[in-house]
Amino acid sequence: MRRLNGDSADFESALAALEVPMDSDDGDVRSTVADIIADIERRGEPALLEYTRRFDQLDVDAICELEVSREELERALSELPGEQRDALSEAAKRIETFHRKQLSDDWSYDDGLGNRLGQRLTPLRRVGVYVPGGKASYPSSVLMNAIPARVAGVSEIIMVAPTPGGYRNPLVLAAAALAGVHRMFCVGGAQAVAALALGTTAIPRVDKIVGPGNRFVAEAKRQVFGRVGIDMIAGPSEILIIADGSAAPEWMAMDLFSQAEHDESAQALLLCPDAAYIEAVDAAVERLLPQMERSAIIRASLDKRGALIQTRDIAHAAAISNALAPEHLELAVADPEALLPLIDAAGAIFMGIHSCEALGDYCAGPNHVLPTSGSARFFSPLGVYDFQKRSSIIHCSAQGAVPLARVAQVLAEGESLTAHARSAAMRIVD
Amino acid sequence: MRRLNGDSADFESALAALEVPMDSDDGDVRSTVADIIADIERRGEPALLEYTRRFDQLDVDAICELEVSREELERALSELPGEQRDALSEAAKRIETFHRKQLSDDWSYDDGLGNRLGQRLTPLRRVGVYVPGGKASYPSSVLMNAIPARVAGVSEIIMVAPTPGGYRNPLVLAAAALAGVHRMFCVGGAQAVAALALGTTAIPRVDKIVGPGNRFVAEAKRQVFGRVGIDMIAGPSEILIIADGSAAPEWMAMDLFSQAEHDESAQALLLCPDAAYIEAVDAAVERLLPQMERSAIIRASLDKRGALIQTRDIAHAAAISNALAPEHLELAVADPEALLPLIDAAGAIFMGIHSCEALGDYCAGPNHVLPTSGSARFFSPLGVYDFQKRSSIIHCSAQGAVPLARVAQVLAEGESLTAHARSAAMRIVD
């Protein structure tokens, strides 16, 4: 694997060369998606049917024929091999347990003047979950996107997934049943995102759209943002491992592979102060890579974006990690608790050598929908809070309103908003 | 004012005719802004200087000359007339008190297998606060945008505000001092948003940009979203009042004006089941309107987008309000607590006749940055949570990892991600 030294003069530029530009900087994708959205807005269901025919080779007369019944979802679950059904159920249970901890309560307080101020939380009414078709169609994604919505109390969870040629992935259907998806339609692409954002005859308009997708889907989500909520703008997945040599080098190699196998654009980095250990990890990478089913993808990803980085010490590794704000951060060190205070931004932090990313990807409980491309600087993991909205509550009493009105009047006059000032002043009553 | 009846056959279309399209559906604005952002990205500070010269008539050699020192901010505060300084301080204090209630703690739990799972909150490191110049330059906005960032613990709050011709609004500077702004630059427009998102020689790159602005600023925020966080896509401001006749009609008229005076595109609606009371409010509107300083704007707004709507009953009014998801909702009724459970989506809810919007706009405590154009369906008021990021924590013990690894292995194999499966399986140790 590529080796970098965190102290060399060209380190920053060498690291920057491993970054990828954000997907939707592509003007062609942008205009194609804009056209599709405009077409769905203008023509509705006939346009959706046409795109589905063209992109998914599905020729139906009405979108309602592409709705998957709740019975079909349940049947897929019951027909799953026992081992898979048990694993999926266990994962769903653990994901639900974690996300229930994210529920919070309404609150209010009296300001001492007789006014009550507070905040109220209510679930979104209807959300759309996008599930990719084809090679990146993952039942675990269905669980991770739909369960927080259900825990939040969303009344209607609508899932869309393209089914090119009509093939319906039974694991995805089973996961939908387990996660509590209310309705599912076999449509996909930018056209499905547009249908969810705008509503069509068969597909109701939603309040928010979540879930991963290709760059057309990602760009469509970006373009409908504001009309509906979206989860985040996702780029290629990344792992950054800070290692002190506590783990077997083979563990580190396989953890790097588990990121790299997603996609040639995925990024796997390992940071360590110990040159000999880096050598050992590199040797393990070369030894294990030929055995991997997805070795071509892994090799391409590691060549393009991977690196083993020698740092001055562990604190230096933490500083580099903070600048990158990785999606997944493994602290593969003997004392992860001591290292944690040095960590600022990361989507998910895997503490210690037994906490490999794969456990978090599937079943530990926390969400695997995480901010990518450095956006952990400002985005958070998908959570129950993404499926709730807050309202401020302002309840002034007749007496309590008076001192507030005096302050508001002065400030409104300072801003030349005299109707504001008079509206406040009217509440100054004896 | 325009009268509508909530039961008439054409009600929905009449109400829809009062909506405005989202700002950035304008292709010219979109491409102008894209060009400005690309130019700042390519040329950095020289481009920023050029735009500032062109749009703000400020001819300086370097952007650092446009930085306002902390001393100048403090001086503006101390030189303010006593009444204004006291009012601004009182507002700042109340806003801080409210937002402190939004702070929440890290949490974690043991899953019973020896694994610890949790969530960690950390402040964003650096945020940008955009403050408009000219007629919409409001010190209250400075408080509402910067105080939650300070409460969250953001290390560096960078404020930008255009100062056309070099005029620095002392109220805005004073508010910046009070709110705890760390650095301020006199730049504005899409170019200032781009500078904050990308960083230039003088202006450091931020993690998130908040604050209101014209449609170029709003579109710039939309375009940089993903590279940095943004607060929300804001449209024209709105009020919806549900009234049962408990308040003097003049109060209702003035509350409608206080929204309408913002802008010709602002919207003011009153819903009430009582025809006679609607008549009385309308008469009060006609009687008071000629006295208002901003009567031309108010008249234009009411003509274009305002309405008095007769409903079957209060529950019917609540249903219409829920469909609109208003930014500001006044429950001007005798028993607002009884009505609240019927309310779903609204940015801020003003309970009872003494709780007029103006009190919330300035000093009640809750934020006045609220979701507009129906986006209260999925957006929340600006809050401390907007200036924090969450990280998931996954800490598996050697024994605790084993059952998780078994589940992950089955699911990863089901998704043909065999490196994931092997990475998990390696943690199955005795």
Automatic annotation (TrEMBL), chains A, B:
Signal peptide: none annotated. It comes from the Bacteria. Pathway: Amino-acid biosynthesis; L-histidine biosynthesis; L-histidine from 5-phospho-alpha-D-ribose 1-diphosphate: step 9/9. NAD(+) binds at residues 130, 191, 214. Binds 1 zinc ion per subunit. The active site is at residues 327-328. Zn(2+) binds at residues 259, 262, 361, 420. InterPro entries: Ald_DH/histidinol_DH, Histidinol_DH_CS, Histidinol_DH_monofunct, Hstdl_DH. Keywords: Amino-acid biosynthesis, Histidine biosynthesis, Metal-binding, NAD, Oxidoreductase, Zinc. Its cofactor is Zn(2+). GO terms for molecular function: histidinol dehydrogenase activity. It catalyses: L-histidinol + 2 NAD(+) + H2O = L-histidine + 2 NADH + 3 H(+). It is an enzyme of class 1 (oxidoreductase). Substrate binds at residues 237, 259, 262, 328, 361, 415, 420. Its EC number is 1.1.1.23. Catalyzes the sequential NAD-dependent oxidations of L-histidinol to L-histidinaldehyde and then to L-histidine. PANTHER family: HISTIDINE BIOSYNTHESIS TRIFUNCTIONAL PROTEIN, HISTIDINOL DEHYDROGENASE HDH. NCBIfam families: hisD. HAMAP family: HisD. Belongs to the histidinol dehydrogenase family. This is Histidinol dehydrogenase.
